[in-house]
């Protein structure tokens, strides 16, 4: 009888802990942002450039075309974990477009999934709700 009471007590404690953990996870929901912020380095000049790109828009950085599909951040009360799903194409010398990267980039770990090109490197640094760059015009 004591063993079954002890098991029940442990089961209730585990359930309460799991409930508290899931409530915490809900409060750390992702925020979808309309602007992704990137940094790029031109390895020839050593110049680092920061640039904003609206979601589903393409910006050319050197020979690379960068297109963010989503950019997520967390509420300001939570530890920031910025990540984005990005596509990067290279314009080759014979003017062909070749996909060189499709995947998630994490601002916390820029070396994990940065795009490393012979001349240009690009990585995600953040997400924003607004940008000084004019928004692209909507096409109908």
Automatic annotation (TrEMBL):
Which residues are the signal sequence here?
1-28
Gene Ontology MF: a single term: hydrolase activity
Q: Which domain of life is it from?
A: Bacteria
- Write down a Pfam family by its short name: DUF2155
Name the UniProt record assigns to this protein? Glycosyl hydrolase family 5
Which species is this UniProt entry from? Pseudorhizobium pelagicum
> Which UniProt keywords are present, listed alphabetically?
Hydrolase, Signal
């Amino acid at each position: 009888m004591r063993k079954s009471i002890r098991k029940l007590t442990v089961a209730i404690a585990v359930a309460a802990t799991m409930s508290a953990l899931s409530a915490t996870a809900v409060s750390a929901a992702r925020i979808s942002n309309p602007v992704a912020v990137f940094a790029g380095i031109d390895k020839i000049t050593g110049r680092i450039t920061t640039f904003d790109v609206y979601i589903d828009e393409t910006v050319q950085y050197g020979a690379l075309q960068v297109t963010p599909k989503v950019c997520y951040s967390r509420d300001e009360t939570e530890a920031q974990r910025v990540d984005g799903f990005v596509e990067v194409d290279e314009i080759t010398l014979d003017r062909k477009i070749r996909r060189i990267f499709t995947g998630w980039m994490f601002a916390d770990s820029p070396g994990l999934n940065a795009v490393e090109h012979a001349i240009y490197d690009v990585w995600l640094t953040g997400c924003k709700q607004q940008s000084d760059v004019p928004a692209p015009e909507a096409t109908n």
